[in-house]
Amino acid sequence: MLKKTRIILATLLCFVCGGLPLMAQRTNQAYWTYIDRHKDWAIEQMKLYRIPASITLAQGLLESNAGRSTLATEANNHFGIKCGGSWTGPYVLRDDDAPNEKFRKYPTTRDSYIDHSLFLQGRRYQSLFQLDATDYKGWARGLKAAGYATSPTYAESLIRLIEMYNLSQFDSGRYMVLSSKKGQLDQDPFYTNHVVYRNNKNYFIVVEPGDDMATISQKTGVSLKDLYNFNDLPLDYAATAGDIIYLQKKRKCASKEFKDYPIHIVEPNQSMHDICQLYGIRLKYLYRLNRMQPDHTLVPGEILRIR
Questions:
Q1: Where are the beta strands (DSSP E) in the chain?
Q2: Could you say which DSSP state residue 251 is in?
Q3: Does the model's pTM come out above 0.90?
Q4: CB–CB of 139/120 below 8 Å?
Q5: What is the spatial distance between Cα 298 and Cα 42, in angstroms, rounded to a whole number?
Q6: What is the pLDDT of residues 65-75, one digit of tens each?
Q7: Superfamily of domain 256-305
Q8: Which fold has domain 29-79+110-165?
Q9: How far is CA 171 from CA 59, 110, 167, in A?
Q10: What class is the 5-18+174-246 domain?
């Protein structure tokens, strides 16, 4: 069983101002949903093979586009692993560095996670296991140096994902979940299913199927009015699975981790609200930072200031 730190909301809030400098963002809803679904498998593999959970999750996100790539949906291949000479299982053909390359096909996504760990036991990756278990930057650069991927920015992409989504929190083998009573296990599915994430000196949960705003309010102890206010939502908004719901008022700008890169490039179908939730910024301040009016229509590729 995974060791989970169970805490009540009151305990969470007392850590906000003086806690560890953690930071987590999403580029879209699918990324947080992917992390929520696969974090336990990444931790499991870390405990078995000493591969940082942050690296496994970052590679899964990057290689599978958060589980949405053709390889992931049709072959359960979340790590872009090709067949090679030792593979005797099923495969699919995809164009990559060359046309019609053979990629491994798995019965389940979990099988892909297991095979990823076994794949990294190969000789070319052995030097990585000399690194500290929390050295995700060393692992990212080592994977690139060993030839895991051909992209010249592969290591930087992994590091950015880990830091954007605070994936290093899983390298401890534990994470926070909500609980109704401090120090007690609670069998209520709401508490066992909701991980508490940290972003921009705030806490949030990811909405699960079946959640509604009234239930979230009741279980977290945050008033319904405050939940709508903290998340810049209209009072008639219905929570959707994958939504981020903050449990405190958001900040006026993005966290200091973005001081050297204080911009966001708008993605297709992304709204100002999506972006303010991504960085934990109050919506009105995101408009002010960019000298925009609420009726402004975003265009993919548009550059926004976030601090």
A1: 5-7, 91-94, 101-104, 176-178, 197-198, 203-206, 244-246, 263-265, 303-305
A2: B
A3: no
A4: no
A5: 36
A6: 999 999 999 99
A7: LysM domain (3.10.350.10)
A8: Lysozyme (1.10.530)
A9: 14, 19, 8
A10: alpha beta
